[in-house]
Amino acid sequence: MIAVIDYKAGNLTSVVKALNFLGAREIVVTQNPEVVRRGAKLVLPGVGHFQATSLLQELELTEAVRESVAKGACFLGICVGLQWLFEGSTEAPRVAGLGHFAGMCERFPALSEGAELKSPHVGWNSLEGVRADSRLLRGVRDGGFVYYTHSWRAPVVEATAAVTEYGGAFTAVVERENVMGVQFHPEKSSAVGLQVLKNFVEL
């Protein structure tokens, strides 16, 4: 069963449609911690402000995710869902992330090489430095284009599986064992995005 976690901030409909298109079975949209604990795979979509992730703690979903992941469930965070895997974000400094990966998410810098950097970062950009051992990025090559819309970015860490350059490199994909995240929206990223979701469904 794939549990798609609903915390009132995710692009749930598009994600569920993409998973259905790929033939995924038994998709459940839920706010129930017990359903999350039973899920073989967990998906945390995300659109909007990091503050919204505080609902995960209020609904006792944070601990449910930790327990499920510890038992071997595969987790995929999308956009804000990726950022939640880190310690937190300067967008909402008092809201803790899951802390699975070290570091804080920060806003794009105001300036880049003397020119103004547009924020949010919206549109197509390429994946670079794709890690050869990444299960989530199997079949995805360097230079593949994906669709972004975000103003905050995750730092590059040891578990980064691919980066994108915009005002410097940021984590486009993070992956360590069964915990994964993508900053872009795979459900809007054409063939590359569908390949990523297909890889996750087939894990």
Helix and strand topology:
Elements: E1 2-5, H1 12-21, E2 27-30, H2 33-38, E3 41-44, H3 54-58, H4 61-70, E4 74-78, H5 80-83, E5 88-89, E6 104-107, E7 111-112, E8 115-116, E9 121-126, E10 145-150, E11 152-153, E12 160-165, E13 169-176, E14 179-182, H6 190-201
Record keyword descriptors for this entry.
single chain; 203 residues; Rossmann fold; seven-stranded mixed sheet; three-stranded mixed sheet; 6 helices; 23% helix
Taking the sheet with the most strands, its summary is: 7 strands, mixed
- Taken in chain order, the helices and strands follow as EHEHEHHEHEEEEEEEEEEH
Output the strand order for the largest sheet. 2-1-3-4-14-13-12
Domain module tally: 1
The helix/strand class is alpha/beta
Count of discrete alpha- or pi-helical segments spanning 4 or more residues: 6
State the CATH topology. Rossmann fold
**Contiguous uncertain segments of 5+ residues:** none
Portion of residues in helices? 10-25%
Q: Give me the CATH architecture, please.
A: 3-Layer(aba) Sandwich
The H-level CATH homologous superfamily, spelled out, is Class I glutamine amidotransferase (GATase) domain
Task: Give a short synopsis of this structure.
The protein is of the alpha/beta class.
Please characterize this protein's 3D structure.
The chain has six helices and 14 strands. 23% of the residues lie in helices and 29% in strands. With 203 residues, it is α/β, with parallel strands linked by helices. It is globular. The strands form four sheets. It has a seven-stranded mixed beta sheet, with helices on both faces. A three-stranded mixed beta sheet has the order 5-6-11, with no helix packed on it. It has a single domain, classed as Class I glutamine amidotransferase (GATase) domain (Rossmann fold, 3-Layer(aba) Sandwich). Strand 1 (2-5), helix 1 (12-21) and strand 2 form a beta-alpha-beta unit. 43% of the residues are buried.
